[in-house]
Structure formats: C-alpha cells, structure tokens
C-alpha cells in the first residue's frame, strides 16, 4: 500500500499537520451555527484558502472541511441528503490544493463524531453508525483523500463503528480521541485504554492519538500516556492553541506562536510522530511549529514539571490513570506560568 500520506509517514522524522478549521473559517465570515461543510459548495475559494494557508505555513498534511459530514450532523441543517456531494467537494478542493504544491502534501478526510449517543446508553445503533460513517468514507474516497481521519471521538463504541466503516471503504485511516475530562474522554476512556483499543482493529489505524481537549500541557500528558504503553504505532498530537477565553463577544485562544512552537518540539520529544494544532491554531502558529520541528534537535521526553514550566499548568490534578499522586499533581498544577 503506497500513497502520499504513507510515504510521508515512512520518510520523515515528524509530520506537521494543520491547525483549526472552525477558527479560521469564522475569521473568513462563517457565522456561529452555520454548517462549515456547506461552504465546500457555496464558498469553494474560501475553503481552498483554508487549505492553502496550512500548506503555505509548512504543513505536511491537512484535514478536509468535512468534520460534520455525516448524515446525523448534516441533518441539523436539513442537508442529510447531501452527504456525498459535500464530502466529495471538500475532498476534491483539498486534492486540488495538494496537487498544486511543490512538495508532497497529504489530504486527510476529516470524520467527526455523529453527535449522537450510541446504544445501550443512547439510541444510535452500531449498524446505523457504521452505515453513516461508511457513506461519508466512500464520498471522501471518491473525492481523492489519501487517508481517512477520525477525530474528536469520546466513546469507544463510536470509534469501533467508524473503524468498521473504513474497512468497508477499503481505506487507510487514523484516529484521535479528545481527552478533556481530567485525562479521560467524556465517556471515560484513558490514554492506556485507547492504546489497547486501536490494536483490536483489522486494519488498525496507521496512527492514533489525541486532539482538541484542553490546553497544550494536558495533551502532552496524554501523549506521554500513549508512549508509556510501549506502542510502536505512530502517535498523533493535535492540541489547542492555549486555553479558550471569552472576550468582546468572541472566543479567543491565548496560545502564542512562541508557545505553540515550544509545544511542537515537546510533543515530538514526548513521542508524537504527527503534530498539529486544533482549536485556535492559525497559520502563524503553524509557521512557528514548523520552524521548531526543523531547527531543534530531538531531546529526551520531558517530565511533567518541565512541561508545566514551559507550557503552563495542567487543567486538572489527574491524568486519568489513577497512578498520579495528588500531592504531585497539585504541585505541578501550581507551578509555572503560561507564556502569553
């Protein structure tokens, strides 16, 4: 199996992924409550500009504007019958941008959660979830993506449904979960749980890891948790650009390009192979991350105290594993100040 993503993964020490989709599109005029996926058809030049911004900043790969591209999510905008159209359009725009680049760029088809709770807690059945993920996967494949990219998942049941759908589509894939509740996903999954979960699939993801969540410090603690399991599978770290703060009627992220450069270098030292940004991450952040990865030598994995001293305190005392001492957690949380 060879494609651009696999070639890059095998040939480079670390890959720089892209930054935020929503934050950048809001700056282009997207309104709160609107479906970003509709812009794949209604505002194609803006979506190409989104993708091009990542390429120009030095990213090796970018995600398509299809995070909410399942029928379940599009139904909120009465667009559930447009799954194929909107996902294909987002993928084709990405393919066009990547193919114009002077270096190899991989296009990853973003697949987000359905937004529904799966059985037995909720009402979404495994079969229906697989059907929806498969419909989206086939459209992204038809549009020309190199790899499917499952992201921001909280429940292992939904992760399994997507993995089954990707197998039906015969596509390589990567998967990330969001660890935003004291080192666990909303449904209680820890970094150790996920490291074990991904090995159960056939085919297994080409890479796995974490995205979104809270701040840069927290996601690195999660990455260390993945690495501690002795995994040889490439790890993904796609953290937010600092902490969100509400000001002047808008959400702003306090992470500077300098902080995100520090984060990128530390993420690599923690064991991440694919490093990018999530909410709040703009092209200027990506440029600083690219420079850090290109100019700094790989170092030893940082301690938790070193992470705090550079990136700021953790949002919680616990890393979700139950092994961290509360006294140590309090100390680490209180030490250091986030660089602004």
Number of helices: 14
Strand order of the largest sheet: 1-10-7-6-5-4-3-2
Proportion of β residues?
5-15%
Low-confidence stretches: 324-340
What characterizes the major β-sheet?
8 strands, parallel
The radius of gyration over CA amounts to: 19 Å
Element-by-element helix/strand order: HEHHHEHHEHEHEHEHEEEHEHHH
Q: Which class do the helix and strand fractions yield?
A: alpha/beta
- What is the CA–CA distance across the termini? 44 Å
Topology, number of strands: 10
Mean pLDDT: 92
Tell me the overall shape: globular
* Helical content (DSSP H or I, runs of 4+): 40-55%
What does this structure look like?
By secondary structure, the chain is of the alpha/beta class. 44% of the residues lie in helices and 14% in strands. It is built from 14 helices and 10 strands. The chain has helices spanning 4-11, 22-27, 39-42, 44-57, 71-74, 83-100, 126-143, 156-168, 191-197, 216-227, 257-270, 283-295, 304-311, 326-334; strands spanning 15-16, 61-63, 106-111, 147-153, 173-177, 207-212, 235-239, 244-247, 250-253, 272-277. Strands 1-10-7-6-5-4-3-2 form an 8-stranded parallel beta sheet. Strand 8 (244-247) and strand 9 (250-253) form a beta hairpin. The chain is globular. Residues 324-340 have low confidence and may be disordered.
